[in-house]
């Protein structure tokens, strides 16, 4: 079967300027999202939020993004929309302003909804830009793109430490200046994207629709996508448990202050950023499936031991766990794109959006469990989640994935 994206995706050379620009946009987009968990300790104190309410805010943010990402991805596959990028950033700017000024829980949820929708607009087209600018280095290009987003998410402990603890909720207004800069960067990227679309030859139409449909309904492809989805479930729930609730575990079980807890959380998040960056090039060298499996098999022993460690060992274990488990983040996106190469927007929206969505559901359930039991119980439960991700061992290897569509030609 002909692959329309392979026929029309130009240029062949990697366009690093655009990759770094879209990565910067991803950084700013996800920084806006990270303001939400960064405010959790402050909002819990000032508005007396429960763990369930904290989990529900995460649910609203991530589920909005996850549900709408595949929808916007589908729209973009049918009709690419370069200016979704700055439009999404504009919505996030409005959400940040609302988050800074909200004085009740309903307004907080509305602000979080706007940030989630802005992110949903950004991500599918951002992944498409990274794909178009990749040339032959897809793993590296996805790593450059995704590392911007993961770095934005990783910075929230610093925001809590340096901004929200000393200055409170209204410090979130400072981030609107950053998102305005992001709109300017993404407008430049959108112009490049628009130009590339004009340079593409028209897609072949004869017989293409029917062949694409058969390809998408191929049983082996569907089975691989289901396994990949389950893999993302496990990784996302674990990451949500650590990023949203481990700071409370450090505060209540180890006796740390809010500021001290952020240092430990920052180690986990920055290690995840490094894992995301190196995971793509490693997958280009050693294979996508191998890195997917390694990210869970390698992280499982560290995750199981983490709840029982003395405080002195938490940081090295956190560093190892964050690096290993997040090495699969960009790899899962590329693997999905290669499973359904004629629908890059849907593949990217499904995997990245699904990661946020499953993290959202996990946050609500874990928050409810923490209210009824304890934070320690939640951390022990989370420690077994990476073991579920060993389902990656059952995924087809890279050569088998290539044959899925090669046989249809």
From TrEMBL:
Key words of the record: Membrane, Transmembrane, Transmembrane helix, Transport
Domain of life: Bacteria
GO cellular component: plasma membrane
Membrane-spanning segments: 12-29, 49-76, 83-99, 105-123, 144-165, 171-190, 223-241, 261-279, 291-309, 315-336, 348-369, 375-395
CDD domains: MFS_FsR
Cited PANTHER family: FOSMIDOMYCIN RESISTANCE PROTEIN (PTHR43129:SF1)
Annotated protein name in UniProt: MFS transporter
